[in-house]
Q: What sequence folds into this?
């Protein structure tokens, strides 16, 4: 078992380092100090927003639920609650490093293509999609059932209704 814990720890460290690298690339590839979130490379604002939200929600899912997997593997079984909370806050910091730029880039008030309601609905769909993938393949123990699929179809309908022409 120590090898599996070590490999999971190595994966976590790699994930954090890679995400920091991505974040700093986004920040340093900006056009100017007055518009720090306008990226130099040609990528539509809606796509940049979606990609940043996916990364952000990956961190969020690990911050909110990853400690349960760590406890199950024994890595944090004897930690006090405050230690687990601080670990989760440390992970959640990186969530905000991606969520804030995603919302700034995507918001129509900043020149983006989406209203506040559209951003929120999109974020919720991405949150549940990322959670489903992580819960199924990383956290384990969860299986998709027909009612989960029905709920996702309702979310797709929500996205359709919030992005309908003339909905801004």
A:
């Amino acid at each position: 078992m120590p090898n599996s814990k070590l490999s999971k720890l190595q994966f976590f460290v790699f994930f954090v380092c890679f995400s920091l690298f991505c974040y700093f690339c986004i920040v340093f590839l900006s056009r100017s100090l007055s518009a720090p979130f306008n990226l130099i490379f040609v990528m539509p604002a809606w796509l940049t927003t979606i990609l940043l939200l996916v990364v952000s929600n990956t961190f969020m899912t690990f911050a909110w639920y990853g400690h349960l997997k760590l406890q199950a593997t024994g890595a944090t079984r004897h930690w006090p609650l405050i230690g687990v909370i601080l670990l989760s806050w440390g992970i959640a910091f990186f969530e905000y490093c991606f969520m804030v730029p995603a919302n700034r880039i995507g918001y129509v008030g900043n020149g983006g293509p989406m209203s506040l309601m559209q951003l929120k609905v999109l974020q919720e769909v991405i949150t549940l999609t990322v959670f489903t993938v992580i819960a199924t393949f990383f956290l384990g123990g969860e299986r998709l059932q027909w009612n989960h699929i029905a709920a996702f179809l309702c979310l797709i309908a929500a996205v359709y209704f919030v992005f309908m022409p003339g909905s801004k």
About this structure: The chain has a mean pLDDT of 79. The two ends are 53 Å apart (CA to CA).
